[in-house]
Amino acid sequence: MSISATLSNALSGLTAMQRSAETVSTNIANATTEGYGRRAVDLSSAVLGGVRIDGIRRETDEALIGDRRLADAGVGYSAQQTAFYQKLEETVGIPGTAGALGTQIAALETALAQAASTPSSDIRLGDVLTASQDLAGAFNRISDGIQDQRMAAETRIETEIGNLNQSLQRIADLNGQIRTQVASGRDASGLMDARQQQIDQIAQLVPIQTHQRDNGQVAIFTTTGAQLVDATAATFGFAGAGLIVPEMTLQSGALSGLTLNGQPIATQGAHAPIAGGGLQALLDTRDNWAVTAQAELDAVARDLVERFQGVGTALGNPGLFTDNGAVFATTDEVGLAARIAVNPVVDPDQGGATWRLRDGLDAAAPGLTGNSSVLNAFAQALSTPRTPASGQFSARAYSASDLAGALVSDIGAARQSAEADQSFATARHQSLYTAELGTGVDTDQELQRLLLIEQSYAANARVIQTADEMIETLLRL
After folding, report:
1. What residue spans define the domains of the chain?
2. pTM reported for the whole predicted model
């Protein structure tokens, strides 16, 4: 081999080692960067000798990343479900805690018993009025809390749809840039890192699968087959509502569904295009879980109203608890918990009088102050077991407090189930995420590679130094 060929080979080796050292340093610097794929320099022997740099290879385990993204979607769904039921349970309250629905029923039972023992006491009658108003107010507050959760979900849906469309368009743009870079033989690893970050953001909202295309591009589909990105990006549509009340539902047309490229898509069920991710959980909050919770609360409110119909008043007149002051109609149950109110005829602030709690709601004038029959009838109405006319409760008779307890129990069971699902989803995600980290940058191995690169660099430098000494020796001859 000639001296010039030796110098050329050694110089190519120095260049290769320099590029390898730069790659190792980049790997170490980005060891904790989300979405970063480890780089490796591809080297081969040149035809005329020396080392040729074939390119920079981005090393990732796409199958593992795909599984982790599905786990991301599962965590997003279960976390939202758990948060909903935890907030709902907190809003309804555990019996015995201040402000809880069960606590308010117990307070009314106590107030009625005390008033019945001293029916002549205006203070005790006032306590019954206050306890009744507090109980109605608890129903109103819980109903408002459920609708607040629906409205919060509605707002987030609108925000996340905007973020989703933005990410899909960015991925499509990055696909185009990567295609250009790869086709021209340039390194597109940085663009691929940016694309992976965008895809990971989408995966938290919608379960997705990616498919490799030519020149480094990827196509993205939902797990149910809806195309999100291929040659172009799909566009989701959604029209948010400014206010949500119990009567507004997706089925009634009062709330917006989703569109994909202008076409309506299903938002519920296992075969919905977005099924299984954080976006689906937000829609389920608005259209499923909260609607069911409102219906169960309305059923308890209906039971309370119907218990007092015909008690202390003529049948057909409003009882102690009313539908916003009027007689409750069974065809108007939706949203009753938001409208339930104490009959104004017993409220001095509304032109009524508390003595009607003792003498009857239809009484035109005060009666005998020692008469406790109406108060006892009110107390009996609360404690008498009766089968609820609506709701998904067990087909058995409940007292008012028992029915409130059943409502809390059902919510608690749903919360526990959601927490169990979240624990499983989180454990699965953590396992896959840890495995993914294991395929990423290992700083110890990178430092070992750097030592080998340093040795190779020194060897090539030594070859050049030896060639230089040989040339000097020949020149001195």
Report:
1. 3-60+440-476, 66-430
2. 0.89
